[in-house]
TrEMBL record:
<dbReference type="InterPro" id="IPR017990">
    <property type="entry name" value="Connexin_CS"/>
</dbReference>
<dbReference type="InterPro" id="IPR019570">
    <property type="entry name" value="Connexin_CCC"/>
</dbReference>
<keyword id="KW-1133">Transmembrane helix</keyword>
<feature type="transmembrane region" description="Helical">
    <location>
        <begin position="117"/>
        <end position="143"/>
    </location>
</feature>
<keyword id="KW-0965">Cell junction</keyword>
<keyword id="KW-0303">Gap junction</keyword>
<protein>
    <recommendedName>
        <fullName>Gap junction protein</fullName>
    </recommendedName>
</protein>
<comment type="similarity">
    <text>Belongs to the connexin family.</text>
</comment>
<dbReference type="InterPro" id="IPR038359">
    <property type="entry name" value="Connexin_N_sf"/>
</dbReference>
<dbReference type="Pfam" id="PF00029">
    <property type="entry name" value="Connexin"/>
</dbReference>
<keyword id="KW-1003">Cell membrane</keyword>
<feature type="transmembrane region" description="Helical">
    <location>
        <begin position="76"/>
        <end position="96"/>
    </location>
</feature>
<keyword id="KW-0812">Transmembrane</keyword>
<comment type="subunit">
    <text>A connexon is composed of a hexamer of connexins.</text>
</comment>
<dbReference type="InterPro" id="IPR000500">
    <property type="entry name" value="Connexin"/>
</dbReference>
<feature type="transmembrane region" description="Helical">
    <location>
        <begin position="22"/>
        <end position="43"/>
    </location>
</feature>
<keyword id="KW-0472">Membrane</keyword>
Length: 216
């Protein structure tokens, strides 16, 4: 169920900056909805629609596993979960601090972060960026540089010779794969922008405090 993921992202939204709330919208609209509505249906029968020009027992299954060692649907689902998981750090930390303050809200305005919660938020951004980059590298290595060819040469046993294998709807798969890669790159840009903004804001705040003390 994706309900837990939606609740998690909504909880993080309460402590996010403006850039962070844009990221939540991107995850919901351009990744989660696209995954549920389109991508899952495109790759659902990829194994059944994969054909080779030979009917040797086991050849098609072995060739499909050779070209697609990890299911595209499973990898995308794992990516969404792993990228969203660091947000649990922020939610748990905020819940802990609210409990210490007798269930009172920590901040009057959204995006006001300081102290340990700010450090936790920055760590979550770094982890999200790392996960996004790792999955982009995985997609690049597993799917021929974000390409889905129409014909593949396969000479893996038990195939008796090099055979041609055909992938169904390669153009459609390339389009949605490119769209998801672009949304992942957009998320990385948002992570780095928010990280830079929070660090810059923190240093400005520290500088102003020192300046005021010096003036006093």
């Amino acid at each position: 169920s994706w309900v837990f993921l939606c609740d998690l992202l909504s909880g993080v939204n309460a402590y996010s900056t403006g850039i962070g709330r844009i990221w939540v919208a991107v995850v919901f609209v351009f990744r989660l909805l696209v995954y549920v509505v389109a991508v899952e249906n495109i790759w659902k029968y990829a194994n059944d629609e994969f054909e080779c020009d030979i009917r040797h027992p086991g050849c098609e299954n072995v060739c499909f596993d050779h070209f697609f060692p990890i299911s595209h649907i499973s990898l995308l689902a794992l990516q969404l979960i792993m990228v969203s998981t660091p947000s649990l750090l922020v939610v748990f930390h905020a819940a802990y601090r609210e409990k210490k303050h007798h269930n009172q809200k920590l901040y009057k305005h959204l995006g006001e972060l300081d102290g340990g919660l700010l450090c936790t938020y920055l760590i979550s951004l770094i982890l999200k960026t790392g996960f996004e980059i790792v999955f982009l590298v995985l997609f690049y290595n597993l799917y021929n540089g974000f390409q889905v060819p129409r014909i593949m040469k396969c000479d893996v046993r038990p195939c008796p010779k090099a055979v041609d294998c055909y992938i169904s709807k390669p153009t459609e798969k390339i389009i949605f794969l490119s769209f998801l890669v672009a949304s992942s790159c957009l998320c990385i840009v948002l992570y780095l922008s928010e990280l830079s903004y929070l660090v810059f804001k923190y240093f400005i705040k520290c500088y102003l405090k020192r300046y005021i003390k010096k003036c006093q």
